[in-house]
Amino acid sequence: MTFLVPWALVVGALGMAGVVVLHLVARQRPAAYLLPTTRFIPDRRTLVSRITTRPRDLLLLLLRVLLLASAAAAFARPVLSPSRAPRARVLLLDRSADVANAADAIAHARAVVADGVPTSLIAFDSGAVLVGDATIALDSLARDTARAERAGSLSAALVAARRAGASLAVTADSVELVVVSPLAARTLDAATDSVRARWPGRIGIVRLSARTDSDATPMLERLAGADEPLAPALAGMRVGIGATAIRLRRTALDARDSALARGGGAVVRWDSASAMAVRAEALAMGDDVLVAMLGRGAPLARGRTIARWSDGAAAVVEEPMGAGCIRTVAVGLPLAGDLPLRPTFQRIVRGVMSSCGASTLFAPADEAALGRLRGGSALASAAVMAGDDRRPSPIATWLLGLALACAFTELAVRARSTPEFA
Amino acid sequence: MTAGPYGALLDSVRGVRWHAARRVSGATLGAHPSKLRGNSSEFSEFRPYRQGDDPRRVDWRLLARSDRAYVRLTTDRATLRTAILVDASASMAFPRPELTKWVRAREIAVALAAVAHAEADPVGLTISGAPAFTLAPRARRSVIVEMIRALDGTTPGGSAALAPLVTGARAPRVVVITDLLGDLDDIIAAATLRIAAGGEVIVVHLVASEELDPPNEALLAVDPEQPRMRRTLDGAGRREYQRAFAAWLDDTSTAFRSARVRYVRAETSEPAAHLVRRLAGETGVRGR
Questions:
Q1: Alpha carbon distance B244, A42 (integer Å)
Q2: CB atoms < 10 A from the CB of A357, how many?
Q3: B220 to A43: CB separation less than 8 angstroms, yes or no
Q4: Which residues of A322-354 are buried (b: 16+ CB within 10 A; e: fewer)?
Q5: Nearest-CA distance from B233 to chain A in Å?
């Protein structure tokens, strides 16, 4: 048992010592003595101080000491600490759409928890759920075969991990955090760094294969030219001729474009920016919002909206055609400026230039972000993790009740006691 | 006449003479000088015969020598009725359990009664209480035994007033044996009235040694006649108590003497016989 306010015990001990001393050096009523000439004694105090070696009124002394002891222990906020393990672990398991193989993810998680360290499992996609003890929870997750459709949010998972870590800190000296995830770029957001800072230790990362790591990776039919604003965003994509290739058209579509689309390819119709007047606009696509000087093309009436303007009007639409699709973009790009270099713009471009049916394209988180995520080399200390989250044991309430009972009993005993007369 | 534990006391006061403070007016022949002149054998003086004098008291020899008629005057002696009042209030039952004050009061009462009875004076006893016990003054031989029996059968208690008993005593000489811790002012007033009426009042003020010098340890003093009066007697309080008590004793003595009351202070450490000899020796009109 530990105490959150240990000085209350010191105060209580001093109080108890004082009570014992008062019972030893009590102002006692002396023995009565019948004296006919009492009237000649000055009428002053009726008590005298006596030092005795044995405390008087043992019952009252016992009640008062018990009252002080229980009150001091209650105000010291006792915490009943169970037996502590040297280490505990929080495991964040990515269950988002970015994970290529859920069974593979569970297998990696099993490998992590195989060392027998007590582990709390948190499954996360756009939200996070504390599933419980990892050994048991992984079995139930393995039976869940539903395909995930949501993007992952590491920030939500880290918040849940911080809360679970505080609970584990009560029973362990240090807490380890392990993330099992493909860690797509979109899994991290603007809040991730500040939420990460609240975890006072290192984070282990087990990278999984992403769903788009395989042959689903989009392939551009032709690399954009060096003077093309989209070139920086598309620089990392494969280039080649194929039935599922992605074609960028700056002019009107023809029969070959229709043929490509019917064969499973994607044709992106994106007019040249020079034809549109630019102005300040906000473009939203998924979680990304781009505010920049943009041109706004003619309104788009048909197709599935992939990106919208700030007023809700469609900015990019997709019309299915055969096994593929035709995507129309009504966004004019300025000929000058740093817009092509902005990460948000690049993510939107990659989303537009993705395969049919996919709104976004998997992009791994960059190494700098992963480095910040890993943090230092030390595990999180339980003392730091617990912080103010330690709660006093309910025994404090019982101790206060005992103190009150002692106080009432002491009053009753004192009321019943009568002065001593020899 | 000796009885029980009082035997030694009565032996020790045998022969003590307790004279009246002034001439007595009784007609019964006794040991005290009488206000009356009669025909006893103790010659006093001659006085010229006046009409109405008893012719038998005319000194015929002097008539024959001087041819003038003189009557022969003699000094008469009479008895003096004596009432002894004993305070039996709770304050006399001190210190416990010996009750030395009450024991000494009984001894003084019996010894004084014996001395008076030895001079043929009628002796009576009154013990305060509710109701008071009264034994009318008598000269018969058994009166001392009756007094002893009454005193031994009394347990001090209560806080009955003494002044009414002083006023109502049916004897010219009244002895009050008390600690004066009751109705002191009333006693002084009653005694003053009796003295003004020609009586004699003797107050024996009994003071216990423990009252003059109480125990040294801290005590909660409780007045036996007023149990609600409780005061702590410790070091400093003890010194103040002794000063206050001594001052009260002096004031009391002065008050009685101012009222021409015979005041005798007696500590319980003083033997009763010694006190009786002291009291009897200081008083009396020597017979002329």
A1: 9
A2: 11
A3: no
A4: eebbbbbbbbbbbeeeebbebebbbbbbbbbbb
A5: 7
Sequence length of chain A is: 422
The upper half-sphere exposure of residue A63, i.e. CA atoms within 13 Å in the direction of its Cβ, equals 15
Per-residue pLDDT band at A65 (split at 50, 70, 90): very high
Contacts of B94 in chain A (CB under 8 A): 34-36
pLDDT (tens digit per residue) in A299-317: 887 888 888 998 988 899 8
Q: How far apart are CA B249 and CA A109, in angstroms?
A: 106
Separate counts of helices (H) and strands (E) for chain A: 12, 21
pLDDT at B154 (0 to 100): 93
For B176-209, how does the pLDDT look when each residue is reduced to its tens digit (9 = 90+)? 999 999 999 999 999 999 999 888 999 999 999 9
Query: Which chain A residues touch B if contact means CB-CB below 8 Å?
Result: 29-48, 50, 421
Q: Which of A14-18, A221-225, A346-350, A392-396 has the least mean pLDDT?
A: A221-225
Lowest model confidence (mean pLDDT) among A285-289, B76-80, B263-267, B270-274: B76-80
| Residue B163, CB-side half-sphere exposure with 13 Å CA sphere | 12
Mean pLDDT score of chain A, rounded to an integer? 81
d(CA A77, CA A9): 10
Q: What is the pLDDT of residues B74-91, one digit of tens each?
A: 777 778 889 999 999 999
Cβ distance B181 to A38 less than 8 Å, yes or no, reads no
Q: Distance of CA A59 to CAs A13, A65, A407, A415, A417, Å?
A: 19, 10, 13, 13, 11
What is the Cα–Cα distance from A170 to A79, expressed in whole angstroms? 10
Q: How far apart are the first and last CA of chain B?
A: 31
| Structure-token pair, residue A30 | 């002396």
Cis ω for the linkage preceding A334 (within 30 of 0): no
Closest-CA distance, A27 to chain B, in angstroms, reads 12
CB contact under 8 A, B219 and A30: yes
Which one, of A351, A15, A379, lies nearest residue A168 by Cα?
Answer: A379
Q: What is the ipTM of this complex?
A: 0.83
Chain A residue nearest residue B238, CA to CA: A41
Q: Contact B245/A35, CB-based, under 8 Å?
A: no
Q: Is the pLDDT of residue A391 over 80?
A: no
In chain B, which residues touch A (CB < 8 A)? 90-92, 94-96, 179, 181, 208, 210-211, 214-215, 217-226, 229-234, 237, 240-241, 244-245, 248
Segment A199-228 mean pLDDT? 73
Tokens of A107: 């297998």
Residues from chain B that touch A44, judged by Cβ atoms under 8 A, are: 231-232, 237
| pLDDT per position as a tens digit, A251-274 | 888 888 888 888 888 898 888 655
Q: How far is A54 from chain B (nearest CA, A)?
A: 19
Q: Which residues of B255-277 are buried (b: 16+ CB within 10 A; e: fewer)?
A: bbeebebbbbbbbbebbbbebbb
CB–CB contact B220 A421 (8 Å)? yes
**Do A43 and B231 lie within an 8 Å CB cutoff?**
yes
R_g over Cα of chain B: 23
Q: Which residues contact A96 (CB under 8 A, 6 or more apart)?
A: A124, A125, A126, A148, A150, A151, A152, A181, A184, A187
